[in-house]
């Protein structure tokens, strides 16, 4: 082993050697920097900080300030790090290239610490000056400086995107690609942003460029599949997914994405074959948290919330899948039957099972379970903390007690005031207003959401808000306006049972029993024929449309699964049989 390799593998020895070298030549900055890095490598963080600070006090090793700041940031000593950076940046304006470059690096670090975009903007201005000068004075350094400019632009774009300033984010990603046109990471982030904005063409263009250079790029293939779904090119979409899953059937992040997209395409019956592929690939699949998460998702989406809950529970303690599993478990606890929270149209129709003491007790138990699960959520981002606060206060809504609902409404309003056009907060406000019977106020919030552009991140909240607004319109007899919103729901999610159920209700009110039956058929199909209320409505409209055999068939299915649902026997089954005999 060469002496250099020896030093590389033994940092303690390296520190001694470097310290001796520094004694011989105290002004050798490169050696000083190596000592600091070797101390960090041996986890002697406190010693490294002291060393950097002492070297800086002696005034010789000024550029070590960056190493110190970087170390403090790594150790999450943000205030100290900020102090060091401000000291570095407090000087008269400079024009020398090395000093400009140094300033730029400090500003980028400061922007990371403060998460403030204005520091990044400043860094970009300085970097633009550096680039101009480098092209003239040090042409060899141009690629490296361009790379830094691209990184700064991408940082600004990411920050804007997190703040929902999507247009500005697009602008900076494009600028990053001017500096570094083949950076696939930036291309992917830009493609993802286009997807969020539902700009299908632009996203496809980015993905095509990535896949041209890297045919097995998983993220780009996933996005392409997503795009094909949006264009309703179902075959192509599944083809892209199949490519990924055939290479690796236990690629559960891809499988979970596929399940969501198959739901939106109204093709959930395709899911079991992919789950079987994973099972065949590995005998341990059924014990894998990722597999259980995917299975839970499928069961939840096909009207089996209790089985879904059981599978999510198996993924609950996992580092990768746990947090999402817990979120889904809480959602199921708060709304197991996927009702329109705050909606009134179906409130009084489900007499048999609507207001029983048993149902109220199970609802209270579910809210208590949700509250316990909330304690397991550990969000990692500011947005995650906001999401958690909203979910916590949905538990208050679920109690339906006026004081609790008003308390939740206060929190939702506060979030909506800080987070501009944040759909989950606006929907939560509207839901609270509906529970408090303040329909006009709820309608105002929902109309705001209805004017916004749909995005995949808030897809479920958009759907819920359109359904709730449709519910309000139906209550006031505005069937056309409700119909438009329901069609919008189905455009984005062809498996949306509730949209079909509302459509059926409108047709029924208009005495168009055939059309009503057709819509209830879809609600019955996509709910996996599990919901007795929808079964009842379907059978009733079959009866009205004189489809007596179909009515009897559905009655049997409902009574097999729910023997204590006698209303369907008296109201429909007996009448359909009598009609057949006459």
Automatic annotation (TrEMBL):
TPR repeats lie at residues 218-251. This is Tetratricopeptide repeat domain 21B. Pfam families: ARM_TT21_4th, ARM_TT21_5th, ARM_TT21_C. PROSITE patterns: TPR (PS50005). Keywords: Repeat, TPR repeat. The gene is ttc21b. Residues 31-177 form the Tetratricopeptide repeat protein 21A/21B fourth ARM domain. It comes from the Eukaryota. GO terms for cellular component: cilium; intraciliary transport particle A. Belongs to the TTC21 family. Residues 218-334 form the Tetratricopeptide repeat protein 21A/21B fifth ARM repeats domain.
């Amino acid at each position: 082993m060469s002496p250099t390799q020896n030093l590389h593998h033994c940092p303690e020895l390296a520190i001694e050697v470097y310290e001796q070298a520094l004694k011989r030549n105290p002004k050798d900055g490169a050696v000083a920097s190596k000592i600091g890095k070797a101390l960090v490598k041996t986890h002697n963080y406190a010693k490294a900080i002291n060393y950097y600070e002492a070297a800086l006090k002696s005034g010789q090793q000024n550029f070590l300030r960056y190493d110190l700041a970087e170390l403090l940031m790594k150790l999450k000593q943000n205030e100290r790090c900020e102090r060091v950076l401000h000291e570095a940046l407090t000087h008269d304006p400079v024009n020398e290239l090395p000093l400009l470059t140094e300033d730029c690096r400090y500003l980028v670090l400061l922007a990371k610490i403060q998460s403030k975009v204005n520091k990044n903007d400043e860094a970009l201005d300085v970097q633009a000056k550096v680039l101009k000068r480098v092209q003239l004075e040090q042409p060899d350094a141009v690629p490296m400086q361009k790379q830094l400019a691209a990184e700064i632009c991408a940082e600004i774009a990411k920050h804007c995107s997190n703040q929902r300033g999507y247009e500005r984010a697009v602008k900076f990603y494009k600028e990053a690609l001017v500096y570094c046109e083949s950076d696939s990471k930036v291309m992917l982030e830009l493609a993802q942003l286009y997807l969020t904005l539902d700009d299908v063409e632009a996203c496809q263009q980015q993905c095509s460029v990535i896949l041209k250079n890297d045919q097995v790029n998983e993220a780009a293939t996933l996005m392409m599949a997503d795009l094909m779904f949006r264009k309703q090119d179902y075959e192509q979409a599944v083809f892209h997914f199949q490519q990924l899953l055939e290479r690796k059937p236990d690629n559960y992040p891809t499988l979970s994405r596929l399940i969501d997209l198959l739901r939106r395409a109204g093709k959930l019956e395709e899911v079991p074959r992919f789950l079987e592929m994973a099972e065949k690939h590995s005998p341990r699949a059924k014990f894998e948290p990722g597999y259980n998460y995917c299975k839970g998702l499928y069961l939840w989406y096909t009207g089996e919330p209790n089985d879904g809950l059981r599978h999510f529970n198996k993924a609950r303690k996992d580092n990768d899948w746990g947090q999402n599993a817990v979120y889904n478990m809480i959602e199921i606890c708060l709304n197991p039957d996927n009702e329109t929270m705050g909606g009134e149209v179906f409130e009084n129709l489900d007499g048999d099972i609507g207001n029983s003491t048993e149902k109220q007790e199970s609802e209270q138990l579910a809210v208590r379970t949700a509250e316990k699960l909330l304690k397991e959520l550990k969000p990692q981002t500011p947005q995650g903390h906001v999401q958690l606060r909203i979910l916590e206060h949905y538990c208050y809504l679920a109690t339906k007690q006026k004081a609790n609902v008003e308390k939740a409404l206060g929190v939702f309003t506060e979030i909506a005031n800080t987070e501009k056009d944040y759909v989950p907060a606006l929907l939560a406000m509207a839901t609270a207003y509906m529970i408090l019977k303040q329909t006009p106020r709820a309608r105002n919030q929902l109309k705001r959401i209805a004017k916004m552009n749909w995005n995949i991140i808030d897809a479920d909240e958009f759907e819920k808000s359109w359904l709730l607004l449709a519910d309000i319109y139906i209550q006031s007899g505005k069937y056309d306006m409700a119909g438009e919103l329901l069609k919008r729901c189905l455009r984005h999610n062809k498996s949306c049972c509730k949209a079909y159920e509302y459509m059926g209700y409108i047709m029924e009110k208009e005495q168009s029993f055939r059309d009503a039956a057709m819509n209830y058929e879809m609600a019955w199909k996509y709910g996996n024929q599990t919901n007795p209320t929808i079964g009842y409505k379907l059978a009733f409209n079959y009866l009205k449309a004189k489809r007596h055999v179909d009515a009897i068939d559905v009655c049997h299915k409902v009574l097999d699964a729910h023997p204590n649902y006698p209303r369907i026997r008296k109201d429909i089954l007996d009448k359909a049989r009598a009609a057949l005999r006459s």
